[in-house]
Design goal:
It is built from 10 helices and 7 strands. It has 267 residues and is of the alpha+beta class. A hairpin with a 2-residue loop joins strand 6 and strand 7.
Length: 267
């Protein structure tokens, strides 16, 4: 690609307004693109100069907010992070993300994701409730403890991973890679004691065990996170926790007697 190259590029854009349209359509636009033009820039240029009815969601333009996720030439990408000429195609096909309801055109509905996010309690949970609600100081953490989860903490909730997930495409109740990654991030945090509160959602029919490790989620993450890895680590964490609890319960049953009181049980 030449430094000052300018090319005419056709944009084939998905159009659909569920409120008035019976079925989706495609519309072709043509614009000039230089090496600096992103797909988001191109779509906004189309909206400003050719078709003001085009709907697209965006905010930061710096791959931080995760708002502009969409299918670009068949792959989940952030429009603000994808340069048109680097696609090496004279035609750019733009569609809404897979696996989500369509609000309008390229804008999809993430309500289901946010509902599932609440189920896994994505925040630090402490044993001392009073201290958690009214902290008297900082929750200190060693550098090596930070390394346990920091690689999974940069999620911007763009939803690309869940759009690429083959399990979510066939099971709408699946918690999705994005949610499971966040659950692991908090559960392995040394300051957190909330795994037991997350288990009902995670250790369930539609929880982490539904992941078949296709790794499609990791291949599309714009922040370089590896959700496929965090989900496998989450499985190990849950298994270890469950085995420990069952072993502990069995030990207590072995030393308990019908006439025993709590004070006579050996720990």
């Amino acid at each position: 690609m030449m430094k000052n190259e300018v090319r005419k590029i056709k944009f084939k854009v998905f159009r659909f307004n569920p409120a008035v349209d019976s079925s989706p359509t495609w519309k072709i636009y043509e614009i000039e693109a230089d090496r600096s033009l992103t797909v988001l820039d191109a779509l906004l240029k189309i909206k400003e100069e050719q078709d003001p009815s085009l709907s697209v969601r965006y905010s930061c333009r710096q791959a931080i907010c995760g708002s502009c996720g969409m299918m670009i030439n068949g792959k989940q990408r952030l429009a603000c992070f994808t340069r048109v000429l680097e696609l090496n195609s004279n035609t750019v096909v733009v569609e809404p993300l897979n696996n989500y309801p369509i609000i309008r055109d390229l804008v999809t509905d993430f309500s289901d994701l946010f509902k599932k996010e609440k189920a896994i309690k994505p925040y630090i949970i402490r044993d001392d409730v009073e201290e958690m609600l009214n902290p008297t100081g900082m929750y200190l953490q060693k550098p090596e403890e930070l390394l346990e989860y920091i690689q999974f903490a940069d999620c911007i909730e763009c939803g690309l991973c869940s759009s690429a997930c083959p399990t979510y495409s066939t099971d709408s109740l699946f918690l999705t890679p994005m949610i499971l990654n966040k659950a692991y991030r908090f559960s392995v945090d040394s300051r957190d004691a909330g795994l037991a509160f997350r288990l009902p959602a995670l250790d369930s029919e539609h929880g982490c065990w539904r992941c078949h490790f296709a790794a499609a989620c990791s291949s599309v993450c714009p922040k370089g996170i590896d959700p496929a890895k965090s989900i496998q680590l989450l499985k190990r964490l849950i298994t270890s926790s469950t085995i420990f609890k069952r072993t502990r319960k069995k030990e207590l049953q072995m030393v308990s007697r019908p006439h025993a009181t709590e004070s006579t049980i050996i720990f």
